[in-house]
Structure prediction request, 640 residues.
Amino acid sequence: MSASSRNALRAALLYGLLSVVWLQITDHFLSSFLDDPAQLAHWQLINGYVWVFVSAALIFVARSRLLNILGGGTSLKRQRQDRERLRQAAAVFDCTREGVLVTDRNGLIVHVNRALVEITGYTVAEVVGRRPNMFKSGHHDLEFYQSVFKSLQDAGNWQGEIWNRRKNGEIYPQWQTVRAIADDKGRLTHYVAVFTDISAIKNSQTELVRLAHQDPLTDLPNRLLFTDRAEQAIAYAQRHKTGCALLMIDLDHFKIINDSLGHNVGDLLLKAVGERLQGIFGKGYTVARLGGDEFAVLIESCSKASQAEGLAQKVLETMKAAFEINQHQLFVSASVGISVFPGDAQNAEQLLRNADSALFKAKSSGREGYALYTEELTVHALNRIEVASDLRRALELQELRVYYQPVHDLKTSRLIGVEALVRWQHPSRGLVPPGEFIPIAERTGLIAEIDAWVLEQSCRQMCQWQASGVNLSFVAVNISSRLFARPELYTLVSTVLTDTGLDPALLELEVTESAVMEDSQGALDQMDRLRALGLRLAIDDFGTGFSSLLRLKQLPVQKLKIDQGFVAGLPEDNDDVAIVRAVIALSQSMGLQVHAEGIEHVEQAQLLLDFKCDLGQGYWFGRPVPASELDWQRAPAIRT
Ligand code: C2E
Ligand code: MG
Ligand code: MG
Prediction:
C-alpha cells in the first residue's frame, strides 16, 4: 500500500472513531438532560446536523492543508530543479574553453569565467566592476565599435572578429558573440559576450600562406611566388618601357652528391647554394628555388642580354669555391640559362620556359656554362613535344621494332647471346635510333610501355630461336633506370616469363650503374626479387656512373658491361687501357662475368682477349639487325 493510501485509510479510521466518540458523548449528554423521547429525538437530529457541519469544517481544513502541502511540494521541486540547472550552467560556464563575460545594463563587468582569465591573463578581481574596453587593442576605429553597439541595439546581438589586448600587452584576434539579455518584461538587464581566441588559427593561416610561397628548405621564394614576381616585373617593365631578365640555374651532377653522401648532405648543400646566391644578389633581385637543384634569379630593370650574361658569369664563378658540409669539402658547378624581356618573351610563363630551354642548351653543350635563349631553342622544345605525342601513336600503331646485336665469346669467337635494342620505324623519318626517343619516353613516362613491349618481343623471339634449334645462352634486354625502381617491374617480368614460357635462365636484364647505385636499398630488394625468378642481371655502361665498390659487392649481379667509351680508346689511350684492365680484374675478383661493348676493330678485341675479358659486342662482330638477319655462323677470328 502506498503512503498516501495509508494516510487516507488512517484519516478515514480517525474520522470514523471521532464520529463514534462525538455521537456517543453527545448522545449520553443529551439523554442525561432530556427525558422526553420526542425532544431527545429532535435534539439528536440537530446534533447530527452539527456533526455534519463539524465534519465539513474538518474536511475543509484538512483538504486545504493537503492542497497547501501539495502546492508547496511543487514549488520546492521547481526550486530544486532551478538550482540544479544553475549548477549545470555554472559548470559549463566555468569549463568551457570560450571566454565568457557578463556585464550589467550599464556595461560594467559583473561576471567572467575561468577561460577569460586564461585568455586575457587578468584575474577575476582585476576585471569585475570595470568595462570591457579595458581589453581594447587599438586595432579598431570608433566606427567599428559604433557598428557593434548599433547591432546590439537593433538586433540584440553581434558577432564577428575583434582584436583585443592581453594583460601582457600582446594583441590577439578573437571571434566574439555578444547578446543583450532582457527580463520577463523585456527590459535590458545584461550583456553576455562569448569569445574564442583564434590566434592559433590565424597563425596557421599565415603559415599556410608562407608555405604556399616559400621553399621550406632554403626559405627562398618558391616557383609560385617567383612566377608572380616575374609577372609583376614584366608589368612594371611594360609600363616603364624597360626590361627584365631571368637566370635559370641548375647544379651539375647534383644527383651524385645525393646518391653518394645521402639526402641530408644534399639538403645542406642546396641551402648553402641558396645562401651563396643570395649573397651575390641584393635588392632588386629575386632569388628562388624552383625545385630539386634548380634555382632562378629575376633581374628587374635589365633589358640587355650582356648585363644578364655578366651576372650569369658571376654565378658560375661564385659556385667554384668549395662548400664545407658536414666535414665534406664539396665542389659543385652550375649551368645557367638566360632569357630576357621583351627580347625573348612576352609574359612570365614564356620567360621561364625560354630560360629553361636555354638551360637545356647550356647543359647539353658541356655544362658549367651559360646559354642565352634563341628562337631556335623553342623549335627544339616543340620538336621534343611533337616526338612525345608521335611516340604514343607509334606504340599504338606498332611502329617500334626490336633489333638484335650479337654478343660473342672472345675466347672462341662464337656468337653466344644477343642484346635487344629498340628502334622506331617512323613513317616519314625512317629508322629512328633509341637515343632520339628514349630520353623523351623517359621524361613522359612512356618508357614503361616501351620496355614492357621490348621485353615481351625479345622473350617470344628467344623462345622461337630455342624451338628452331638455335643455341643461344641469353637475350639481354635494357631496363630504363626510371622503371627499375618501380615495383611493377617485378610483376611485368614474371608475367612475361609465364606468358611466353621462356626459361628465366636465358633472360638477362641490363640496368645502368646509376639505377642500382641510387636508392640503394630499394634497388637491392628489387634485384633480389628479380634474381629469385631465375634470370641474370648485368650492369650496363659500367664506369660512366658513380659506383661504390662496397655497394657493387652487395649487388646480386652476374655481369659488368664495360662502357664503349673506354673501349673506343683502346689500344692507344693509356688511361682507357688502364681503366679497362682494372675493370676486368675487378670483375674477375668479384666472380663476375665481364663484357666489353663498342668493339669496332680487331685490335680492340685482341687486347680485351689478352686482358681475359669474357664477352665482346660491337660493330666489328656485327651491328644490331632484325631477328631474321642474324648470322649464327659468324665467328670472326680474333687472332690471325
Ligand atoms: P646500350 O644498352 O649501351 O646499347 C649499346 C649501344 O651501342 C647500342 O646503341 C648499339 O647499337 C651501340 N653499339 C654497339 N656496338 C657499337 C660499336 O661498335 N660502335 C658504336 N659506336 N656503337 C655501338 P643503340 O641501339 O643506339 O642504343 C643506345 C642506347 O639506347 C642503349 O645503350 C640503351 O641504353 C638504350 N636502349 C636501346 N634499346 C632500349 C630499350 O629497349 N629500352 C631501354 N630502356 N633502353 C634502350
Ligand atoms: Mg645495353
Ligand atoms: Mg651499354
The pocket of magnesium ion (ligand 2) is lined by residues 419, 478, 510, 540 (CB under 6 Å). Residues 394-629 form a domain with the TIM Barrel fold (CATH 3.20.20.450). The first strand starts at residue 99 and ends at 104.
